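Ticket #4471: complex job returned nothing on first submit. Input attached below:
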Amino acid sequence: MENTTEHLNWRYGVKRYDSAKKVQQEDMDKLQDAIRMAPSSFGLQPFKVLFIEDAELRAKLSVASFHQPQVTEASCLIVFAIETNVDEAFVDAYFSNICGARGVKLEGSLEKHRDSVVHAISRKQNEERLAWATHQAYLALGFLLLAAAELKIDANAMEGFMSAQYDEILGLKQKGLHAVVIAAVGYRHPEDLYQHMVKVRRPENELFIKI
Ligand SMILES: Cc1cc2nc3c(=O)[nH]c(=O)nc-3n(C[C@H](O)[C@H](O)[C@H](O)COP(=O)(O)O)c2cc1C
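Support reply: We reran it on our side without changes. The output follows.
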Protein backbone atom coordinates (compact mmCIF):
# COMPACT_ATOMS: atom_id res chain seq x y z
CA MET A 1 0.00 0.00 0.00
CA GLU A 2 2.93 2.30 0.71
CA ASN A 3 3.96 1.70 -2.87
CA THR A 4 0.47 2.45 -4.13
CA THR A 5 0.50 5.79 -2.32
CA GLU A 6 3.90 6.55 -3.80
CA HIS A 7 2.69 5.67 -7.31
CA LEU A 8 -0.43 7.80 -6.89
CA ASN A 9 1.62 10.79 -5.77
CA TRP A 10 4.02 10.31 -8.68
CA ARG A 11 1.29 10.35 -11.32
CA TYR A 12 -0.40 13.55 -12.46
CA GLY A 13 -2.51 14.81 -15.34
CA VAL A 14 0.21 15.33 -17.94
CA LYS A 15 -0.27 18.25 -20.33
CA ARG A 16 2.88 17.87 -22.42
CA TYR A 17 4.30 14.50 -23.37
CA ASP A 18 7.79 13.86 -24.70
CA SER A 19 6.87 12.80 -28.23
CA ALA A 20 10.34 11.31 -28.77
CA LYS A 21 9.70 8.61 -26.14
CA LYS A 22 7.71 5.50 -27.06
CA VAL A 23 6.23 3.12 -24.51
CA GLN A 24 7.67 -0.33 -25.19
CA GLN A 25 5.24 -2.94 -26.56
CA GLU A 26 5.87 -5.14 -23.51
CA ASP A 27 4.57 -2.35 -21.26
CA MET A 28 1.67 -1.59 -23.60
CA ASP A 29 0.69 -5.25 -23.25
CA LYS A 30 0.67 -4.85 -19.46
CA LEU A 31 -1.58 -1.79 -19.73
CA GLN A 32 -3.86 -3.71 -22.05
CA ASP A 33 -4.05 -6.48 -19.44
CA ALA A 34 -4.99 -3.99 -16.71
CA ILE A 35 -7.90 -2.77 -18.84
CA ARG A 36 -8.93 -6.31 -19.73
CA MET A 37 -8.79 -7.58 -16.15
CA ALA A 38 -10.81 -4.70 -14.69
CA PRO A 39 -14.08 -5.93 -13.19
CA SER A 40 -17.38 -4.95 -14.77
CA SER A 41 -21.06 -5.23 -14.03
CA PHE A 42 -22.10 -8.88 -14.58
CA GLY A 43 -18.65 -9.29 -16.19
CA LEU A 44 -20.07 -8.08 -19.51
CA GLN A 45 -17.35 -5.52 -20.36
CA PRO A 46 -19.71 -3.53 -22.62
CA PHE A 47 -16.99 -1.54 -24.37
CA LYS A 48 -14.07 -1.77 -26.77
CA VAL A 49 -10.74 -0.02 -26.40
CA LEU A 50 -8.84 1.44 -29.32
CA PHE A 51 -5.07 1.91 -29.16
CA ILE A 52 -4.13 4.60 -31.68
CA GLU A 53 -0.55 5.33 -32.66
CA ASP A 54 -1.15 6.44 -36.27
CA ALA A 55 0.03 10.07 -36.48
CA GLU A 56 -2.28 11.10 -39.32
CA LEU A 57 -5.34 9.81 -37.52
CA ARG A 58 -4.26 11.50 -34.31
CA ALA A 59 -3.86 14.81 -36.12
CA LYS A 60 -7.55 14.53 -37.10
CA LEU A 61 -8.54 13.57 -33.56
CA SER A 62 -6.57 16.52 -32.19
CA VAL A 63 -8.93 18.91 -34.00
CA ALA A 64 -11.83 17.09 -32.31
CA SER A 65 -10.03 17.43 -28.96
CA PHE A 66 -9.70 21.22 -28.85
CA HIS A 67 -6.08 20.78 -29.97
CA GLN A 68 -5.04 19.42 -26.60
CA PRO A 69 -1.36 18.55 -27.17
CA GLN A 70 -1.53 15.17 -25.39
CA VAL A 71 -3.53 13.73 -28.30
CA THR A 72 -0.63 14.02 -30.74
CA GLU A 73 2.37 14.10 -28.39
CA ALA A 74 1.70 11.01 -26.26
CA SER A 75 3.14 7.67 -27.28
CA CYS A 76 -0.35 6.21 -27.68
CA LEU A 77 -3.90 7.52 -27.57
CA ILE A 78 -6.41 5.16 -26.01
CA VAL A 79 -10.11 5.56 -26.78
CA PHE A 80 -12.74 3.87 -24.62
CA ALA A 81 -15.87 3.28 -26.70
CA ILE A 82 -19.03 1.78 -25.23
CA GLU A 83 -21.09 -0.88 -27.00
CA THR A 84 -24.37 0.75 -27.98
CA ASN A 85 -26.21 -2.51 -28.68
CA VAL A 86 -25.94 -4.56 -25.53
CA ASP A 87 -28.79 -6.99 -26.17
CA GLU A 88 -29.66 -10.64 -25.59
CA ALA A 89 -27.19 -11.76 -28.27
CA PHE A 90 -24.40 -9.83 -26.51
CA VAL A 91 -25.24 -11.53 -23.21
CA ASP A 92 -25.35 -14.93 -24.96
CA ALA A 93 -21.89 -14.37 -26.42
CA TYR A 94 -20.61 -13.64 -22.91
CA PHE A 95 -22.17 -16.79 -21.48
CA SER A 96 -20.77 -18.94 -24.25
CA ASN A 97 -17.38 -17.39 -23.39
CA ILE A 98 -17.90 -18.50 -19.76
CA CYS A 99 -18.83 -22.03 -20.87
CA GLY A 100 -15.72 -22.23 -23.05
CA ALA A 101 -13.33 -20.79 -20.46
CA ARG A 102 -14.62 -22.91 -17.57
CA GLY A 103 -15.54 -26.02 -19.54
CA VAL A 104 -19.12 -25.98 -18.24
CA LYS A 105 -22.55 -26.28 -19.83
CA LEU A 106 -25.12 -23.50 -19.86
CA GLU A 107 -28.01 -25.79 -18.82
CA GLY A 108 -28.93 -25.54 -15.14
CA SER A 109 -27.90 -22.78 -12.73
CA LEU A 110 -25.79 -20.89 -15.28
CA GLU A 111 -28.79 -20.64 -17.60
CA LYS A 112 -30.86 -19.15 -14.76
CA HIS A 113 -28.09 -16.63 -14.19
CA ARG A 114 -28.03 -15.86 -17.94
CA ASP A 115 -31.79 -15.24 -17.90
CA SER A 116 -31.49 -12.86 -14.93
CA VAL A 117 -28.72 -10.90 -16.67
CA VAL A 118 -30.84 -10.63 -19.85
CA HIS A 119 -33.73 -9.45 -17.69
CA ALA A 120 -31.60 -6.87 -15.86
CA ILE A 121 -30.21 -5.50 -19.13
CA SER A 122 -33.49 -5.45 -21.04
CA ARG A 123 -35.41 -3.60 -18.32
CA LYS A 124 -33.03 -0.64 -18.63
CA GLN A 125 -34.10 2.21 -20.92
CA ASN A 126 -31.60 2.89 -23.70
CA GLU A 127 -30.17 6.02 -22.01
CA GLU A 128 -29.73 4.14 -18.77
CA ARG A 129 -27.99 1.27 -20.59
CA LEU A 130 -25.56 3.68 -22.22
CA ALA A 131 -24.83 5.31 -18.85
CA TRP A 132 -24.32 1.86 -17.31
CA ALA A 133 -21.89 0.90 -20.09
CA THR A 134 -20.05 4.20 -19.63
CA HIS A 135 -19.55 3.45 -15.92
CA GLN A 136 -17.90 0.15 -16.83
CA ALA A 137 -15.55 1.88 -19.27
CA TYR A 138 -14.53 4.42 -16.62
CA LEU A 139 -13.74 1.67 -14.16
CA ALA A 140 -11.40 0.10 -16.73
CA LEU A 141 -9.90 3.55 -17.27
CA GLY A 142 -9.13 3.72 -13.53
CA PHE A 143 -7.34 0.38 -13.67
CA LEU A 144 -5.31 1.67 -16.62
CA LEU A 145 -4.26 4.81 -14.74
CA LEU A 146 -3.09 2.90 -11.68
CA ALA A 147 -1.30 0.20 -13.69
CA ALA A 148 0.48 2.88 -15.71
CA ALA A 149 1.63 4.64 -12.53
CA GLU A 150 2.99 1.35 -11.17
CA LEU A 151 5.05 0.98 -14.36
CA LYS A 152 6.17 4.64 -14.13
CA ILE A 153 4.36 5.35 -17.36
CA ASP A 154 2.38 8.56 -17.59
CA ALA A 155 -1.32 8.29 -18.36
CA ASN A 156 -3.86 11.06 -18.45
CA ALA A 157 -7.63 10.61 -18.58
CA MET A 158 -9.32 13.10 -20.89
CA GLU A 159 -12.92 14.10 -21.46
CA GLY A 160 -12.07 17.23 -23.44
CA PHE A 161 -13.02 15.92 -26.85
CA MET A 162 -16.08 15.85 -29.08
CA SER A 163 -17.36 12.32 -28.92
CA ALA A 164 -19.61 12.59 -32.01
CA GLN A 165 -16.59 13.68 -34.05
CA TYR A 166 -14.49 10.85 -32.65
CA ASP A 167 -17.27 8.43 -33.63
CA GLU A 168 -17.22 9.88 -37.15
CA ILE A 169 -13.42 9.91 -37.60
CA LEU A 170 -12.99 6.40 -36.19
CA GLY A 171 -16.07 4.94 -37.88
CA LEU A 172 -17.42 3.85 -34.51
CA LYS A 173 -21.16 4.20 -35.16
CA GLN A 174 -21.12 1.52 -37.87
CA LYS A 175 -19.46 -0.80 -35.36
CA GLY A 176 -22.13 -0.17 -32.71
CA LEU A 177 -19.68 1.84 -30.61
CA HIS A 178 -19.57 5.32 -29.09
CA ALA A 179 -16.46 7.07 -27.68
CA VAL A 180 -16.91 8.10 -24.04
CA VAL A 181 -13.48 8.85 -22.62
CA ILE A 182 -9.87 8.83 -23.82
CA ALA A 183 -6.45 8.43 -22.24
CA ALA A 184 -3.05 9.62 -23.40
CA VAL A 185 -0.16 7.31 -22.50
CA GLY A 186 3.52 8.09 -22.72
CA TYR A 187 6.27 9.92 -20.87
CA ARG A 188 6.05 13.42 -19.42
CA HIS A 189 8.05 16.15 -21.11
CA PRO A 190 10.77 17.47 -18.76
CA GLU A 191 9.37 20.96 -19.36
CA ASP A 192 5.76 20.11 -18.50
CA LEU A 193 5.18 22.56 -15.65
CA TYR A 194 2.30 20.56 -14.18
CA GLN A 195 4.65 17.90 -12.82
CA HIS A 196 5.91 20.38 -10.20
CA MET A 197 2.50 21.39 -8.93
CA VAL A 198 1.37 20.33 -5.50
CA LYS A 199 -1.47 17.84 -5.66
CA VAL A 200 -4.83 19.22 -4.61
CA ARG A 201 -7.51 16.95 -3.20
CA ARG A 202 -10.54 17.52 -1.00
CA PRO A 203 -9.60 17.13 2.68
CA GLU A 204 -10.27 13.68 4.15
CA ASN A 205 -12.94 15.01 6.51
CA GLU A 206 -14.89 16.44 3.57
CA LEU A 207 -14.48 13.47 1.30
CA PHE A 208 -15.11 10.59 3.67
CA ILE A 209 -18.03 9.80 5.90
CA LYS A 210 -17.17 7.26 8.54
CA ILE A 211 -20.08 5.73 10.39
C1 LIG B 1 -12.44 11.81 -16.42
C2 LIG B 1 -11.32 12.78 -16.52
C3 LIG B 1 -11.27 13.68 -17.58
C4 LIG B 1 -10.21 14.56 -17.72
N1 LIG B 1 -10.13 15.37 -18.83
C5 LIG B 1 -9.00 16.08 -19.04
C6 LIG B 1 -8.78 16.77 -20.27
O1 LIG B 1 -9.59 16.74 -21.19
N2 LIG B 1 -7.63 17.47 -20.41
C7 LIG B 1 -6.67 17.51 -19.44
O2 LIG B 1 -5.64 18.13 -19.65
N3 LIG B 1 -6.85 16.86 -18.27
C8 LIG B 1 -7.97 16.15 -18.05
N4 LIG B 1 -8.13 15.45 -16.87
C9 LIG B 1 -7.10 15.53 -15.82
C10 LIG B 1 -7.63 16.22 -14.55
O3 LIG B 1 -7.76 17.59 -14.75
C11 LIG B 1 -6.68 15.89 -13.41
O4 LIG B 1 -6.63 14.49 -13.24
C12 LIG B 1 -7.13 16.53 -12.11
O5 LIG B 1 -7.01 17.93 -12.18
C13 LIG B 1 -6.34 16.04 -10.92
O6 LIG B 1 -4.96 16.28 -11.08
P1 LIG B 1 -3.86 15.13 -11.15
O7 LIG B 1 -4.35 14.08 -12.09
O8 LIG B 1 -2.66 15.84 -11.69
O9 LIG B 1 -3.67 14.60 -9.78
C14 LIG B 1 -9.20 14.59 -16.72
C15 LIG B 1 -9.27 13.69 -15.65
C16 LIG B 1 -10.30 12.78 -15.57
C17 LIG B 1 -10.28 11.80 -14.44
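The longest strand covers residues 177-186. Closing as resolved unless it happens again.
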